[in-house]
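Dear support,

I submitted the protein below through the web form. The confirmation email said the job was done, but the results page showed an empty box. After a refresh the structure appeared. I'm attaching both so you can tell me whether what I see now is the final result or a partial one.
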Amino acid sequence: AIIAAAFVDSINPCEFAILILLMSTVLASGNKKRALFSGLAFVSAIFISYFLMGLGLYSVIQTVKITRTFFIAVAFLAIIIGLFNLKDYFWYGKWFKMEVPESWRPKMKMLVKGITSVPGAFGVGVLISLILLPCTSGPYIIILGMLAETTTQNIAIIYLFLYNLIFIVPMLAITLAIYFGLTSPEDAENWRMRKLRMLHLIAGIILIVLSSLTPRYRIEK
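What the results page shows now:
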């Protein structure tokens, strides 16, 4: 369940777009190593932020008595998010998108285009984590709820580390691929745009399957 949820969370077209734009901006200055370190700083900030927020949410869920109703509500939310992702596969862009709102994108692009340093890239990563967590928290909350019921804090930390490590793997791959010349920011962005609907399809299916584990898990408990 942890691997599946982390995989769904890692399929994040919005974070891919911001990372690609960031590396493209830094590469424009002609400093390839700075682009690499900026990409790594951005990914590190995402990892640290999600990990710490996960620990905080885990503590809250563990402290508050969890009821079967809570698990069913979270599962229902995951199903809704999964169905919305499936909608974006069959009818992409109709009514709304399971992505960053269009109205936010110009400001986010302006913010990222102004970043040319490694500390700035780290700061943007932290900010993006705070913005996007509410949009991608479905799988995370399901896993945190399960961990709060079944593990001690020390074991939960190990699982959260694994979760967030899987979460950043695609972003690390994009960063290294651009640095080593296996792809360009333009090609990476074109790939992202071509695969958007397929990414939504994969996320939708896994979210719906994952949500079915939660009530069943609680009943068996």
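Response: this is the final, complete result; the empty box was a page-load delay. Residues 2 and 159 are 8 Å apart (CA to CA).
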